[in-house]
Queue: 2 jobs
Job 1
Amino acid sequence: MNIDLLVTDCALLPVPGREPLIECGYVAVGAGRILETGSMDACPAAAAAIIDGQGQLAMPGLVNGHCHAPMVLFRGLADDLDLATWLHDHIFPAEARRVDAEMVYWCARLAAAEMLLSGTTTVADGYFFEDEVARACVETGLRCVAAQGVLDFPAPGVGDPARNIEAAARFIERWQGRDPLITPAIFTHAPYTCGRRTLRRAKELARTCGVPLFVHVAETRNEREQIAEPLAPSPIGHLAALDLLDRDTVCVHCVWADDRDLDLLAAHDAAVVTCPQSNAKLASGRAPLTAMLDRGLRVALGTDSAASNNSLDLFREMDFAAKLHKVRPSDPTAVPARQLLRLATWGGAAALGLESGHGTLVPGAPADLILIDRNQPRLQPWHGPDLLVYSGPAACVRSVIVNGRLIVHERRLLTIDLRETCAQVRRLALE
Amino acid sequence: MNIDLLVTDCALLPVPGREPLIECGYVAVGAGRILETGSMDACPAAAAAIIDGQGQLAMPGLVNGHCHAPMVLFRGLADDLDLATWLHDHIFPAEARRVDAEMVYWCARLAAAEMLLSGTTTVADGYFFEDEVARACVETGLRCVAAQGVLDFPAPGVGDPARNIEAAARFIERWQGRDPLITPAIFTHAPYTCGRRTLRRAKELARTCGVPLFVHVAETRNEREQIAEPLAPSPIGHLAALDLLDRDTVCVHCVWADDRDLDLLAAHDAAVVTCPQSNAKLASGRAPLTAMLDRGLRVALGTDSAASNNSLDLFREMDFAAKLHKVRPSDPTAVPARQLLRLATWGGAAALGLESGHGTLVPGAPADLILIDRNQPRLQPWHGPDLLVYSGPAACVRSVIVNGRLIVHERRLLTIDLRETCAQVRRLALE
């Protein structure tokens, strides 16, 4: 067994949301995979590199199911507004003016840094100039399901909407099988910005290439009315009628999904990403998460963009989701901590169609793991993994390993010059 | 002008929630007070000590309106349960077994450290053995309105309920005028744990001594039924009927306050503390915060204890409050960021009856301020102070000054041995 990296003397949470926690153990990593984990009695003696995990907890890195990484540029640009005003009066004009390959590249680097430093090791991203997001993630060391945006309007990098599917096809060609960190995909923005033909063609392309299709759907109450038609009484019904739903389609938001919509999603085994903070901040509403989980839907948790959140901290997203779903209708047992730990790791990975084991420390899984400093005041004393949801431990993330490579160590990002990235983003923000 | 401490070259937010932000300024501190602030052109040349604030934002430290600091021992002990089960099956038994002077002292030290490191400089605390909380705060350097608990049951340190008011009186005697960091107060636990006579006597004592009275009230739906009687149809009505409401009474929670209750609070100018995360996690409900603010009530924001939150990070509380009150009924403009910045600083201080200016950087105010590293990824780029609410900046707090004294510098606590404190709390947790 060739061990590239060995983490010793740490507590271990191999499958978040499930017991047991190993109090003092090790993780052996080789060729980008988890080779084995166990208690320290069985720890291998030799490895190419060793990290002393004393006082730390090793767990799988978090999986952020939905992001528009480059939108960190618009973080805090326009708060306390509804989605329509926010989008049409602030974000769309800013995007029209500001989005180019350079902006996407630098802002995606900043977003990748922010996610890694707060314990996220995989993100599903959807934007324009998505090549630049993929490039930024490869350089920074973040795993990314990178989805090229498709719109029936002139979009950044795709001036002619008639070529939107072609642009997505070229993007997939360029990235399929190219880098272990990148899974290319397609992101049809929404049923109200993509016509029937575009949605159908995008899904055909996704099926042909074997890649996931992402789509914002049922985000706001208004959308329901905009999409309504005799044969498709709801946005999700509309997607079903177009034969868009299958297990490689990821429906983002689904706030205004009723029982019939959830039945449709379940019947087609389509996946869902819920973004509770973004939906709350924009007052779009609260997704029926309990009903989704009761139906056995594959669900991931997403931050959405930093412009509507305004952070990319998935630990905070877990905490918010738990509390939001308990408070009304009043049920303190709803969406318990262990369920959110699952959604934020292997449950989310399954929703995104990633390989089995992704989001766990089970041997054979991709070696994406984080080390959390359990000696920080907010994690004292340690009564169990629920603290990871309720105590806001993002700042306690000390080390991050992605694909077997050490990316963050002692809270420092090792892969890129963060100071330069921040300076570039500040420059772009002033333009 | 004798300047003890001068912070230079920082951005300044002198009165959170109000413009303007000074882009490059200074803060001069002397004798525990803010002496002056201004732009760098007018910066004094000499000071006993200088902190280079480059890349940082200086703002008043946060005011946590409600806490039971020693309960950090029970952080994560029992999650995802309703208030009655949580309290009667887990917390009360744990308290009966575990609470003594030693536990209160060490756990309050840990809580004080956690609050200071996340930017809180004043806390209103209520517990038993409150002398130990006050002592821990003085040693750690946190400002504290320390309220001795009063119950009509045998309580930690007060075995005979007949002596509960006497114990509170002795506590106030010991602390009034003793240390600039400590304001003694009384904490009558709740209308369902304190009888009429006790509530009346506690308020008489508070009035005689000129100290605030805290009380949990209208936290759960059940409480309404428990307290109901012909003359007082609600818990808040009950307090009013007992003549407990005045501007030195702080009503904590008020989740189940109806319009009549809010009118009563307003008529008596009684203050409110809202604890949205605790109320959500225990599924107690959501306080009518918008209605409270519309009536001009003095409102503070509190974390409640780490056992029902599970962190003491007031930045996170702001963010949660903003989103919770936007999502339902759907209003993205409700409780905007600037309003929360006010509640978490000078608005909260006013609710607690602290001196005018407390929670600002206005000359003459207590020198309680924090420096936030604006170069951290999650605060990039800087579009304005709303980011302080929506981007979770607790981990970006680099320096903390309380009463003119540097308590946290470069994210390190200078006052106590944090490692020893954590070890003591871990030992207590295992007992």
Job 2
Amino acid sequence: MRASVFIATSLDGFIARTDGALDWLPGEDGTEPPEEHGYEAFIASVDVVVIGRGTYEKVLTFGGWPYRRDMAVRVLSTRNLQPRPDLPKTVEVASGSPGDILAKLERDGFRHAYIDGGKTIQGFLDAGLIQRMIVTRIPVLLGSGIPLFGPLHADLRLRHVGTKTFAPGLVQSEYEVENARSHA
Amino acid sequence: MRASVFIATSLDGFIARTDGALDWLPGEDGTEPPEEHGYEAFIASVDVVVIGRGTYEKVLTFGGWPYRRDMAVRVLSTRNLQPRPDLPKTVEVASGSPGDILAKLERDGFRHAYIDGGKTIQGFLDAGLIQRMIVTRIPVLLGSGIPLFGPLHADLRLRHVGTKTFAPGLVQSEYEVENARSHA
């Protein structure tokens, strides 16, 4: 079982403003079509998405479900999700430690998890359970917001796989986590 | 008068561990010679270095003065520096707002300041007085430490000038600050 992160951040490491706003992302103001920065190839390699409750609630406000309707999605929460007839049946709640969650997914036949959302990414990273990170830097400093990274019990050494640039000034770097645990 | 930043950070945005340690920088453990990543060309374009008192004190612990002996250096402090016969006469104390400091430097005939040290960089960025940033990402997550960036009164929009990669996995991006003030 592998787990990966694919995310955009400001140069100062925020994935959203404090209120969750994404207006600083290119294309979010509607003036230019969003460019494709490898997301399609990435999501095609994934068979399950793991998101936190906060990210899930935020995604629902966007209108429309952002994942393929046959994509398994696990929402980390100790509470049940409110039934939503507009959501695919592939969305389920999950709880437990990052290791427990991945072990259960592996038993259920999944092989590559996309870990998304700030707190969720931080928890899986600190547990040593992320093998791969693709981070796209947006050329803006926000000064405050929801941080991508958080405290760790120990350094995580990374191997730089490659860096690509995209208009307008995006820098996308891919890393493997050298001291990730192979949890299962 | 222009002001630039040239600095290395961990992928999670720290320029030093909480205690100031730089052991995570490539070459700092003595096992490999430090590679030259454009610093020589950068420092040759600069005629004055502006550092905070904390960075100055830290630099003194390294043994040896890290700048050319004819390089003007301004140490931001409200207290005088302790006389050190081993330091060049080009080192002086300075105080005031970032705008005051740069205006004084310009009156003194300087044209390009290298702004260094976490708090100092943050203060000059928030004042809109940094025009250019060269940030080198080291492939490690530290989890905590002294942050490169800090709070801002307003977004700073950046123009990506270019990105280079260096062994072992360093990613160096250069940005111009689009909404920097031309203060003088």
